[in-house]
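Thread: quick sanity check before group meeting

JM: Hey all, I'm pulling together slides for Thursday and realized we never actually wrote out the predicted structure for the chain we discussed last week. Dropping the sequence here so it's in one place. If anyone has concerns about the input, flag it before I start.
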Amino acid sequence: MIMAMRRSPSDAGRGVLLTYVQNSSSIGVDSICHYKGSAIRMIQMFEQNALSDVKHVIGVMSGKGGVGKSSVTALAAVALARRGHTVGIMDADITGPSIPKMFGVHGRLDASETGIFPAQTSRLRIRIVSLNLMLEQEDDPVVWRGPLLMGMIKRFWSEVNWGDIDYMLIDLPPGTGDVPLSVMQSVPLDGLIAVSSPQDVAALIVRKAINMTRMMDKRVIGLVENMSYITCPHCGEAVYPFGRPSGQEQAMGLGIPLIGEMPIDPELSAMADRGEVELYEHPIMESLADAISQAATGDAPTAEANRENR
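JM (edit): ok, ran it. Output follows.
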């Protein structure tokens, strides 16, 4: 559990940073809206940091934990950076962050009186902010209730000196709770990518998340089905450990495009464990970059253009 930490004279930057971590934040309420008889508290838009110019923001969500949304976030960021874009990742999965590990980013973020400075990856200079880069030990648990979680998201947007960013990707936690709600209400999203897997139970929970985006009047630019298959290392045949892929069916039922299917790939797992996700290659990455670029220009991605991802 995070406890109050003292600021030492030799660690001034970190002292400021830890103050950011410890203090909760007041979040203003603009109004109440009603959806199917339920009252929803509408939160004010967060003010962007004065030293930041974030042009496009895409959220990655699942509703269901363990389907690989952090992997999708990471691969999308890598694909966009390879195209020459300046990319940032906000790791909004406050209590279960995995983005720094996948990129091999460790240590503590720097800060000054002007705000927090994001870490940068070694290869593609992707900028990353995560609560795991603010902890004494990366395996320290974060035992926070909703107001603290929401306050930290506000600080990630308003008090981080992101600089000039072409695309910011926000890795959202599973579920439809405080953090996804805060991001959808208070950050200027261009759209969201939904991540699912072939199981019916995963599809059900993802539908809940999609319905949440519609309640918030946010655009879903497409669906990624992860863990669709695994390629046999001996014969090269596709094996379906969770049943036949259902991404196309899920996407059609939800009325959104299918961006593509991702396999269970031991190589991706190994690279992520080594912090080398920037070296990974798979056709889904180009499809993700295409879908995000089209969303940024206001063009809807089409399922037809994204079918050859295996």
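AS: nice. The two ends are 43 Å apart (CA to CA). The chain has nine helices and 14 strands.
JM: adding both to the slides.
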